[in-house]
Amino acid sequence: LLPPLETITPYDRGPAITIVAFVFFFVTLIIVAVKLGTALYSKTVLLSTDAPLWIALIVAFIQSLLTQFAVDHGLGKHSSSLSTADFSKYNKLTYAAQLLLIPVLSLSKVSTCRLIHRLTPGQRIRRANLITMIAVGLWTVFALFATALQCRPHWEYLPSHCVGKGAVNYPIILINIVTDLALVVIPLIMIWSVQMTLQKRLQIIASFSSRLVLTTYLSIIAACMPSVYRILSNLRSGLNGVHLSEIELSTTQGATGSRTESGNQGGSSSRA
């Protein structure tokens, strides 16, 4: 057997970071591939929904590489054991990785916003969704500049050398949470007026709600889940269907001004 590439010790926890980063990358790659395969099978590939996820996956992979390089230069070790050169490189690499986290989160939110827009004709839902998307865009710009410029030198995060001693991170985190909540509440309102069983309603809501506890790679997975949850349930039950049925995606007359009652009977297919 070959010796391990790296070893976790009381003085070096970097290998644990490497394992977590790349395990989540490959899991995310599989989920995104499943979503892409589903879209190709059903001929419903839409760049407005899928492209942000592909870009987010690429950016997240680059972030993982930067994190690995940071591990090579001391991430996970005691700072006192690092040389001046390694400490400087470690700070610059983690600084770059932190900046890349923001577009990953933003792109996954944009993908979810586009999915919600596709699923409902209701003007109120679409208006709330548009406001959320604008908020995500403004948050992205603010978070990038605030994170990039808050400290001197920019790549060394020392509260004593940062604006407000690092307090600028609080609005970044707060707005991120608020937009995630919006991307759960909006689908909840949309789905609750749809005619379907309580179990299916809760499954769809749960697929959107998963983003509340997730970041980076898992935020990409969370953006995929509303589209792929149907596949997972079909695999469990032995069915071959791969689409969300129209009855799961349509809104009622009272909520949106139109009512659609249809299913997947007779070989009909619907958008996912």
TrEMBL record:
Q: Does the keyword Transmembrane apply?
A: yes
Q: Where is this region: Disordered?
A: 252-272
Where is the Rhodopsin domain positioned along the sequence?
Answer: 40-211
Q: Write the record's keywords in alphabetical order, separated by commas.
A: Membrane, Transmembrane, Transmembrane helix
- One Pfam annotation reads Fung_rhodopsin
Q: Where are the transmembrane segments?
A: 16-41, 53-75, 95-116, 128-150, 170-192, 212-232
Q: InterPro entries per the record?
A: Rhodopsin_dom_fungi
Protein's UniProt name: Rhodopsin domain-containing protein
Q: Which organism is it from?
A: Aspergillus niger (strain ATCC 1015 / CBS 113.46 / FGSC A1144 / LSHB Ac4 / NCTC 3858a / NRRL 328 / USDA 3528.7)
